[in-house]
Amino acid sequence: MVRDRLRRLIRGVARRAVGASPRIPNAGRTERAPPTTRDDWQPEPEPEPEPEPETAPEPVLELSAEAVLQRMNAGETVVLVDVRESSELWSGHARDAILAPMSQFQDLAKSLPEGPLLAIYCAAGARSYGIADYLRKNGRVNAWSIPEGFGGRVDVGGEWLQPATGTDWKLLQPVRLTQSAATERALEGQPAGQLQAVERVDGTLQLTVRTRDGVWIAGLGEHEVQRIGRG
């Protein structure tokens, strides 16, 4: 009798344990197959990729040394601008080039001529490209960089000048014309500017000054020029 009661107790505990076990979702159910006909089901379309934003093309800022020389030979007015530093200029510079070192360029830019083509060069084309870009962004659409640099201009036959050495005069030195030199040339006051060329012609030293207003005065003797400040 005790044995029968024990069996019934064990069976009851087992039934309760089975009844309390967690139910498995969808247990005993069969999965419904997805529709296979076009009318019943369509796959979701892939999202279209967003178009990449359009970028403005890089402006063309370079004009080869040969192209610049061809324009000059054809009679076009071209102003050469040398943006190398003063220590580099003694190796030579293009004849009649405006010497406007990059370190001083913002102050000198306003005196550059407005109309003619500005052909800018440095040693290898990097600084001149930056200057041409700066001028374009400030409305000078006629500014171009010579990518070959000063050496490239010499290679294609452009005229250049070797400054006279062994003198007390320095390129880019601030100077002022004497009163007699200004009077002889019918100039008002005593124009001030920078030395742009120091050369010997038939054994005589001749200086070229570019005034602060952008006027060139060439063929000056040493006695016709006065230094300004510490230059």
Overall number of structural domains: 2
CATH architecture of the largest domain: 3-Layer(aba) Sandwich
* Bulk shape: elongated
Q: Which structural class do you get from the secondary structure elements?
A: alpha/beta
Distance N terminus to C terminus?
129 Å
Strand sequence of the main sheet, in spatial order?
A: 10-9-8-7-11
CATH evolutionary superfamily of the largest domain: Rhodanese-like domain
Detailed description of the structure:
This protein is α/β, with parallel strands linked by helices. The chain has 2 domains: 59-161, Oxidized Rhodanese, domain 1 (3-Layer(aba) Sandwich), CATH 3.40.250; 163-230, SH3 type barrels. It has helices spanning 2-20, 65-73, 86-89, 105-108, 126-137, 149-155, 179-184, and strands at 78-82, 93-94, 98-99, 117-121, 143-145, 160-161, 174-177, 192-201, 204-211, 216-220, 225-227. A 5-stranded antiparallel beta sheet has the order 10-9-8-7-11. A 4-stranded parallel beta sheet has the order 3-1-4-5, with helices on both faces. A hairpin with a 2-residue loop joins strand 8 and strand 9 (204-211). The radius of gyration is 42 Å and the shape is elongated. The N and C termini lie far apart (129 Å). The relative contact order is 0.12. The mean pLDDT is 86.
Q: What does this entry show, briefly?
A:
With 231 residues, the protein is α/β, with parallel strands linked by helices. Helix content is 26%, strand content 21%. The chain has helices spanning 2-20, 65-73, 86-89, 105-108, 126-137, 149-155, 179-184, and strands spanning 78-82, 93-94, 98-99, 117-121, 143-145, 160-161, 174-177, 192-201, 204-211, 216-220, 225-227.
